[in-house]
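User: Quick sanity check before I run a bigger batch. Here is a single chain. Can you write out its predicted 3D structure?
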Amino acid sequence: MLLLDHSAWSRIVAAKLAAERAQTVAGWIAGGQVATCVPFLLEAGYSARSGADRKSMMATLDPLPRVRVDREVERLALQAQRELAEAGHHRLAPADVLIAACAHRAEAGILHYDRDYDLIAAHTSLRFESEWLASPGSL
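Assistant: Done. Predicted structure follows.
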């Protein structure tokens, strides 16, 4: 399972992927291998251009499996932020830290286009598969 990050979702929606990669991602989504979590959904909703756009987007995302934020995810996110601060990287987006904590808790990966996840993986005790949507800098 891969949790969606907004950095990937916005590029999927904008159809900025090569045809072969788009087909792979569409297969993952259709196969129930892509999931969401509240931090991602809040970012996606924030990016909507209108109320109607948000409603349509949420209708598309609602059928996907969802990883819940529970007390353990909260603990893991706070611990990861502390570890990042100790390594000099405390200014990463809170949603990214929460998504990484959700992925760790669910033993899932993250589908993204965001170097923050490489920093989180390198400097915290969170473990998750980092699945770049496309090669860094290619989109």
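The two ends are 23 Å apart (CA to CA).

User: Great, the batch can go ahead then.
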